[in-house]
Amino acid sequence: MDGEPAQPSNSSWPPSENGSDAQATPAANLTFSSYYQHSSPVAAMFIVAYVLIFLLCMVGNTLVCFIVLKNRHMRTVTNMFILNLAISDLLVGIFCMPTTLVDNLITGWPFDNATCKMSGLVQGMSVSASVFTLVAIAVERFRCIVHPFREKLTLRKALVTIAVIWALALLIMCPSAITLTVTREEHHFMVDARNRSYPLYSCWEAWPEKGMRKVYTAVLFSHIYLAPLALIVVMYARIARKLCQAPGPACAGGEEAAGEGGRGARRRARVVHMLVMVALFFTLSWLPLWALLLLIDYGQLSEPQLHLVTAYAFPFAHWLAFFNSSANPIIYGYFNENFRRGFQAAFRAQLCAPPWGSHREAYSQRASRLLRTRVFVEVQPSDSGLPSESGPSSGAPRPGRLPLRSGRVAHHSLAAEGPGCSHLPLTIPAWDI
Questions:
Q1: Of 286, 304, 335, which one is at a domain's C-terminal end?
Q2: Distances from the Cα of 322 to the Cαs of 88, 89, 228, 302, 389, in angstroms?
Q3: Model's pTM, two decimal places?
Q4: Which end of the chain is more exposed for a tag (fewer CB within 10 A), N or C?
């Protein structure tokens, strides 16, 4: 190792702010660190893990956006909020996952000052928008189930709420974006495998006073994690209590009414289960990262402890937080049949082209035809996922449509099969419309 390392001629590194040269400093006062923080096997494990959640995030959330935007019957208030969650997750995948992975593999910050600010701002705004959206979903479900006779939230009001959510997210993260900066660490250099040295840069929040960072971290933790999630817990607890106290179907309707009422109750419970799982998974995924941030600011860690937390704990905590952005579409597909059928239709369209046209007609237009005719079941124009209180309407079935069986409307016209592809009749639960 040379006693007087030379500054590399690499234009991708930010320029030195003070113009100092390492050659003017005695070698005894210099600190050298490895260019890469981890060995090759550990680095490969991090790369595979981050690439996996990146692909899941991109594919899953893009499909969620496609399903909600391309199918008119999916444009409900709750699904608009779910669409907003998917957009925030996509921003995390695009702007945060790649830079965080590289930052966790290389000692120091390898990008410029603009990327430092952008990555921190987008990640902070995304998590803020996500938790505020979860609160909005909980409030909307609370109003629909606990207070069903109050005025429902319209699509226009939902879009205004989403705009307010992003404005609040930007407002609360502005201090972080302003203070984030890239600075060069004096007398500290990185050394690669070929014994070449590089200056060390760090992306950090340069607050005027050290105590201000602690206060800001506490404010963020209380406003975009602790208080909103406590409110969500209260809301869903009230919803669960209301569902448990809901009376059973009237005896006058006979067994058919009892069956419809039971399916409606199960449908309501399944919707709430999906939303609770989204909120719970968000809470658990971001908890380790928040714990580490509080530990860094208030724990007074020693240098070895700080290195251990930075090199190993933070990469895992970031991965777990980012995994939340990848898992939400999986939760939607598991609990919600509309999303599950939308995913199936999208993948089926990639494997084989149906002879009767695109999958968009099979998925979206069948619901619109049902809404226009209402031959078998009348559905309330609400996105709460609840069945209508009225029973099946009378009338002869129209061509291409089977009578209602087990709450489903089937279409004979969609059962065409192409060579090598089996297109099952696409059905949609009547109470999902």
A1: 335
A2: 11, 8, 19, 28, 42
A3: 0.70
A4: N
